[in-house]
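User: Hi! I'm working on a homework problem where we have to compare a predicted structure to a textbook description. Could you give me the structure for the chain below?
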Amino acid sequence: MDENKYRGSLVKVIGMSDTGEKIPAASGRISTQPGNASAILEKSLDLQKNAKLISKVTKSGHNSTIEHTVFNLAFQDVSVFCEQFIIEFRLASFTVKSRRYVDFGSDGYYVPFIGDKYEEEFKKTMDSFYDDYNYFVENGIPKEDARFVLPYCLKSNFFCTVNARELLHMIQAMLFGRGSAFIELKNLGEQLFEQIEKLTPGICTDFFARRPKLSDKINIGLRFDDMKKADSTDKNVQLLSYTLDAQKTIARTALVESRQYTADTIENIVYDETNVEKIIDIVMDSSRPRPLETASYTFRINGVSLSTITHFTRHRMQSLSIPSLTLTDRTKYIIPDTVRANPEFLKKYTDAFSRINKLYSRLKHEGLDEELLVYCQLSGNTLDIVSTMNARELKVFFSLRTCSRAQWEIRRYAHDMLMELRRVDPYLFEKFGPSCFMASCPEGAFSCGKAAEIKEYYGKKDE
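Assistant: Happy to help. Predicted structure tokens:
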């Protein structure tokens, strides 16, 4: 791999399953051949035969066989824009360097304009944001607040572990789908495929011949510009839809799962609200509360900073709709209280967002594509997102995100989401809250020490 041509934005395969393509090949044989799993694996030692069989099986649409091969990836000095794109692939594991705790003042940034007339202006402007970041950190602003002035070309480093099927899906999106319009993502997709093709040729056979026929970018193709514009809401969160009578749905599911009662018997049981509440209590205390998954809730979450969108993305058991970052309004941004409280800090902070908007507007006027200008925004710029989670995942989400150790912005959203849910499903969601409220604090030495106060606060019935 020629690293020089990729502008410093690299991805390296640093590990993979030591069985290579043997298990995918054995998986292709196990459903049609006699013998136990070990015997069939012993027949899967010929690399060329394995590659041929894997190609045949995957051409038939049986792609689950290649999930048995797993890759470990290191994304090195990529932009945080790239990081956000990659971590949206939910069937993978990620560990990212935290911008809440690590000082990023000297980590540098990805430059999309190398070799053209915009390069020096871009670098000069980006350097000014790092100057602002360092100024805030040196003057006592927490790193988690100072990071909002870091540009979205900020260099990120992270590890990713992913199976072959999801990795091919990722590469397809980078080369042919929604990532293909971005030079950085397309380059990274090329790097990935070049490496895994050498390691697992059977898995990669006919990859380009089987490319998607359509882009995975949604283009509605309709315009509503002539419609009367309604006033924007000032609510942080809006509950767009939810499972009606969720408590009874959960109770019905629990009774089918645990007792196999007839439908008529179940209806007689759930007719009594007291029975429903007892069943809900039992489900909540279970170590496997699957019935909670039958209740679903969809939120519009407004004005989320680009930094905090990554916190939402890490909850993989949800359907999360994030607009393309080409749609960001550079005039909209979050202001942390630590900055707002000091007039000098506030002016420097707002000046940063004014500078990025001026750079974006000028380069757009010059005719540059939005796919290049995506790097001309700051981490504190905001977008509206939509999240759908079932009640079981919300239980996990609230336990982490309403905790006092959670980042303050997502904690604010989580609190407002919980209050909305308590309004529509009070008995169920009055049991939800931070870990110390639902069970016990898991933070150990990092505990805030306020479990009693938090339990009292979330135990109120009149929120």
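For your comparison, note the following. Residues 1-6 have pLDDT under 50 and may be disordered. The first strand starts at residue 10 and ends at 16. Good luck with the assignment!
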